[in-house]
Recover the amino acids of this structure.
């Protein structure tokens, strides 16, 4: 990646973090955004759905998980292994989560190994994606560690990628590289934006 592109990304990331940190009423707005996600036709059609679990000032999903668990779907959450890769866990109760690395809520270690609790990316019918900054074409910028980039490369092409964000995380343009993956939809408190997706 060129130094110029990296610098632009770093500046956007800083601005997006500042915007997100300053966002008032995060809990209330997050509930509305999560409810919009659950009202999507893609959600109605999905049997197995990945929810991210919020960290820091992301759109808060943790309070919605108990509601999602009543929807008759297989709810899946990610956790980060020692190799810095995301693994997927079949969540059946919010009591299965505990505070883990980086103060992130994740499945309790003793529950992760049974095969019935492990999910592959190919099983997902719908993928909820976090991010730091987005634009209205569906371009996404994460924290720069590539956790979700690796995961999304293995998701089925017919599984929609839907990002949750506050409106303040949207920018006119996110610089992208050829390998970057675009979102199918971005949900904010103001609108549902249709992105390019992986077409």
């Amino acid at each position: 990646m060129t130094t110029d592109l990296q610098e632009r990304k770093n500046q956007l990331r800083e601005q997006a973090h500042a915007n997100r940190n300053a966002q008032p009423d995060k809990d209330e707005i997050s509930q509305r955004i999560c409810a919009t996600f659950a009202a999507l036709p893609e959600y109605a059609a999905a049997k197995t759905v990945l929810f991210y679990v919020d960290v820091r000032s992301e759109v808060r999903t943790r309070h919605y998980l108990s509601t999602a668990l009543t929807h008759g779907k297989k709810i899946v959450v990610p956790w980060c292994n020692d190799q810095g890769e995301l693994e997927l866990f079949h969540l059946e109760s919010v009591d299965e989560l505990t505070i883990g690395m980086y103060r992130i809520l994740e499945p309790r270690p003793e529950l992760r190994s049974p095969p019935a609790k492990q999910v592959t990316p190919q099983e997902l019918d719908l993928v909820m994606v976090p991010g730091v900054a987005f634009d209205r074409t569906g371009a996404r910028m994460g924290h720069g560690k590539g956790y979700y980039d690796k995961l999304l490369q293995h998701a089925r092409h017919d599984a929609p990628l839907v990002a949750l964000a506050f409106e303040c995380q949207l920018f006119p343009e996110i610089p992208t590289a050829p390998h970057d993956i675009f979102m199918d939809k971005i949900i904010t408190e103001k609108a549902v934006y249709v992105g390019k997706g992986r077409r």
In short: The chain has five helices and twelve strands.
